[in-house]
């Protein structure tokens, strides 16, 4: 294990979810979908983040998501770190769209620079050690607050955030129970991290 190659979202209606993600974000190889009815409620413990080049690109993706049926959790706004917004897809997945740029330098596009999976964890240090022991390397680390791993050859960046801090960042309650409704794919034997996030061998296709 040294990267996240794919993300599989477990949804009630894979056909509807595929339609949404194609229309809203144009995601294909990074995202898989499969039918699942595992019970869960509240915050699922993770956020998917799309990093783009400029504010106009944030607006383009967020507007496309809202038009496709997403719900706004945080409207697009400027901050000290840049510009961003948070939406919730019809299947319940929370998406953050953000840029560190504060001004537009070209016409708007829906090009995505990076896909980042933010896991909300109980103990950042413990989860960090779990992933280090399995071959990932740290790109950024801010004590027990935030850790970002180098993406390696994977299509998705992985980062760890304290669960309550992550929930606060996207504007939801940190409370939640049941299935995370997500699986991470990589060159690894199946395993589960300290917070219950499951890893699968990415060579095994998702079943819709």
Automatic annotation (TrEMBL):
SUPFAM superfamilies: Glyoxalase/Bleomycin resistance protein/Dihydroxybiphenyl dioxygenase (SSF54593). It comes from the Bacteria. InterPro entries: Glyas_Bleomycin-R_OHBP_Dase. This is Glyoxalase-like domain. It comes from Goodfellowiella coeruleoviolacea.
């Amino acid at each position: 294990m040294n990267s996240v190659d794919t993300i599989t979202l477990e949804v009630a209606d894979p056909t509807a979810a595929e339609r949404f993600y194609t229309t809203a974000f144009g995601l294909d190889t990074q995202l898989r979908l499969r039918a699942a009815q595992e019970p869960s409620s509240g915050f699922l413990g993770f956020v998917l983040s799309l990093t783009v080049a400029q504010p106009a690109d944030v607006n383009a993706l967020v507007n496309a998501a809202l038009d496709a049926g997403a719900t706004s959790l945080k409207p697009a706004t400027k901050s000290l770190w840049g510009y961003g917004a948070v939406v919730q897809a019809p299947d319940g997945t929370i998406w953050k769209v953000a840029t560190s740029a504060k001004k537009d330098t070209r016409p708007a596009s829906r090009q995505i620079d990076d896909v980042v999976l933010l896991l909300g964890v109980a103990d950042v240090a413990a989860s960090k050690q779990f992933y280090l022991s399995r071959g990932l390397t740290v790109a950024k680390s801010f004590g027990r607050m935030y850790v970002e791993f180098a993406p390696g050859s994977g299509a998705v960046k992985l980062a760890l955030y304290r669960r309550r801090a992550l929930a606060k960042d996207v504007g939801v309650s940190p409370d939640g129970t049941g299935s995370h409704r997500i699986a991470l794919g990589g060159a690894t034997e199946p395993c589960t991290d300290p917070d219950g996030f499951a890893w699968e061998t990415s060579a095994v296709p998702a079943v819709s």
